[in-house]
Structure formats: structure tokens, C-alpha cells
Amino acid sequence: MTREAAELLKKALDLPAEERADLVSSLLESLDQAPEDSASVKAAWNEEIARRIADLDSGKAKTIPWKEVRNRVAAKLANAR
Asked: Taking a C-beta distance cutoff of 8 angstroms, is the pair 28, 20 a contact?
């Protein structure tokens, strides 16, 4: 993440929940463009999802509680100053 993006994220996290939700919705809409070959994109995502599930099931990948992820992000943002 660039410094500019990290700063934007930090500002966004300070917004009230409803404004954050509106912002997320707007950002997602900006990405919601039909790819040229949506069938191949869907197939690629299905393969990636299957790979990630297999990694979780096998123990290769470990999950992290959201609270810990949030704390790590906050620490990185604090250090980015």
C-alpha cells in the first residue's frame, strides 16, 4: 500500500460507520466493471478459492482473528507517519 493510500485509509477509518459504508460501496462500484473475458476470470477465481480452501483445510494457511488484523494495520499506519 502506498503512503497516500495508507493516509486515505487512516482518514476513512475515522469516519462514522455509515459514511465508511457509503465509501466502501462507492469504491466497490468503481471496480465493478465487466472484464473482457468474464468466464475466464470466474474460472480463475474459482481455482483460487479452491486453492485457499485446500490450504485452510490442510493447515498450510492459518487464520488470524479480525481484532489482531486490525491491530496490525493500525500499528503499520502509525509507523507510516
From this structure: no
* Residue the block writes with cell 468474464: 38
Residue 22, amino acid: D
**pTM of the predicted model, to two decimals?**
0.45
* Domain coverage including residue 44: 3-79
What is residue 81's three-state secondary structure? coil
Q: Residue 11, SS3?
A: helix
For residue 37, the 8-state DSSP code is T
Q: What is the pLDDT of residues 1-54, one digit of tens each?
A: 899 999 999 999 999 999 999 999 999 988 877 666 778 888 999 999 999 999
Report the domain count for the chain. 1
